[in-house]
Amino acid sequence: MRTPSRIAVVGGGITGLAAALRLRDQAPAGTRITVYEQSGALGGKLRTGSLAGSPVEAGAEAFLMRDPTGAESAMVTLARRLGLADALVHPSTGQAAIYVDGELKPVPGGTLMGVPGDLAKVAEIAQPAAERDHDGGQPLIGPDEDLTVGELIRRRLGDEVVDRLVDPLLGGVYAGRADGLSLVATMPGLARAARTEHTLVGAVRAAMAAAPRPTGAPVFATVAGGLSRLVTAAADAIETPDTDNAGGVSAEIRLNAAVRELTATPTGWRLVVGPARDPELVEVDAVVLALPARPAGRLLSEVDVGVAALVGGLDYASIGLVAMALPETALPALSGFLVPATEGTLIKAATFFTTKWGHLRRPDGMILVRASIGRYGEEHLLQRPDDELVATVHRELSTALGTALPAPVETYVQRWGGALPQYTPGHPDRVAAARATLRAEHPTLTLAGAGYDGVGIPICVRSGETAADEIIKALEG
Question: Cytoplasm: is it a keyword of this entry (predicted)?
C-alpha cells in the first residue's frame, strides 16, 4: 500500500461505519480515513428514540445472530469488537401472528419466508393448490434464471399462499410485494434449491436443510439501551487515536458534509464536498461509496455512465413507524403480527415491544407498541398528518386485538423516505456487472450497502467490511 494513503468513506450509516472501522483496524500505518456524512447524525436507519421514558427504536429494531452458513453474524462480531457483547439481549417470545379474515393466527412453522415445506402446516391461513406442485422431471428454474417470488409460488402453490403468507412476510422485511421482488435477491437459498429440485415443497425443504440453526439458540438480538449505543461505540472506535503507534492510522468523521461530485484523477479521486456556494475539493487515493443506490448512481455518473445506470436504477420503498405508549393493557403472548395487503389496512406490521423484549417491561405496566406502515407504491399514505396516522393505527390495532385500546400516553411518528431497496429480477447480476467494471477500471472505488447486497444489519456490516478489504488490497497492488 502506498504510504500515506487517504481513503474517503462516503456515508455514515452502519455500512460506512463498518467500512471505516475495518480500515481503522487493518489498514497500514500512515493511512488517513475520513467519513463523510451528509446529515447531522450517524447511523442511518439505526436510531434509538425515547417513548414515555423508555428507549425505543425509531428505525431498525433487531438483527440476526447467525449468517446463512450458521456462523456468527457480522453484527455480533462487530458488537464484540466494540465491547457490547454483554449488552446483547434476545426476544422473550418469537411467536408472531398474521392478521387474516379479522383474526390473529399464528405464523405457521416449517416455512421459508412463508413458502411451506409442509402444506398441512399452513392450512389454517392459506389453502395451497397442491396439485400444481407436481414433479415435471426437471428443476423449477434454469441455472441462470431469476424471476419474481410471486411468479414462482403462484405457479406452483396458488394465490392464497402468496397473498396470505409470503406477501406479508416479505412486506415486513422489504416493504415490497412478492410479485415485484427477485427470487435470487430476496430468497437466495430457495433459488439455489430450485435449480436442482423438481417441486417447490422439495426446494423449501432442501433450502431449510442447507441452512441449519443450532437447536435452542436465539435467532435475533438487539442492544440493551438501543442500537444507537452501537453507532456511538463505532464512531468512538473509529476516531480513537492510535496511541501504540505515533505514525498509525488516523480517522475522522465529518457530519453535515455532503459529497456532491466524484471524479477520477491520475492518482486517485477528487471529491467536491459541501454546498455549491462554498465547495471544498478533497483529493484521496480511494473511496468507499456506502450510500443508497440512487445517490451513489449520481456520483458515479462522472465516473462510468454504464455503472451509474446499473446502480442508479434501483427503486426504494418509503415506510413510516408509529409508536405508542399505552396504559397497562392485556396483549396476546405474541411478539407482534403481520398484515397482508389484501386486508386493506394502513398497518402492515406491528410489534409489541414490551411483550417481545423482556428488558423493556416496566414496573408501571406501561406497554409499548410500534406499527409499520407503507408498502411500495403507497408513499402517498405517509403524507397524512401525524395525528391522522396515529388515530388510524390506534383504531386498526384495537380492531385486530378485539378490544378498545386506551388512549396513548405518548406517541411518535417516524418517516423513512427511500428506506428499503426493491430488488427486481436480475438485481444480483446487475450489481455483479457494476462491481466487475469498477474492479477492472477503477479498483480503488468500491460500493457497499443494502442497495447491493441485501437488507438487514449484519449484511450491511459485512458489505462495508468487504468493501474496506477490497480497498486495502487494491492500494497494496
Answer: yes
Please state, for a pLDDT cut of 90, what percent of the chain lies above it: 91
Which of helix, strand or coil describes residue 390?
A: helix
Angle between helices 228-239 and 74-81 (to 10 degrees): 60
Residues shown for the chain: 477
The predicted structure's pLDDT at residue 1? 46
List where CATH 1.10.3110.10 sits in the chain: 108-210
CA-to-CA distance for 132 and 119, rounded, in angstroms? 12
- Phi, psi angles (nearest 5°) of residue 275: -70, 155
What local confidence, expressed as pLDDT, does residue 94 receive?
84
135 close to 105: Cβ distance less than 8 angstroms: no
Beta-strand pair 6-10/32-36: parallel
Neighbours of 92 (CB within 10 A): 15
C-alpha cell at 157: 402453490
Instruction: Flag residues of the chain having pLDDT under 70.
Output: 1-3, 214-215, 243-247
CA 101 to chain centre: 29
Q: Which CATH number is 108-210 given?
A: 1.10.3110.10
Is the separation of the CB atoms in 102 and 398 below 8 Å?
Answer: no
For residues 74 and 19, give the distance between their C-alpha atoms in angstroms, rounded to a whole number: 12
Torsion of CA 205, 206, 212, 218, to 10 degrees: -40
CATH of domain 316-422: 3.90.660.20
**CATH T-level topology, domain 6-46+224-314+423-476:** FAD/NAD(P)-binding domain (3.50.50)
Is the pTM value of this prediction over 0.90? yes
Q: Say what the pLDDT of residue 246 is.
A: 52
Q: Tell whether omega for the bond before 168 is within 30 degrees of 0, i.e. cis.
A: no
| pLDDT of amino acid 217 | 77
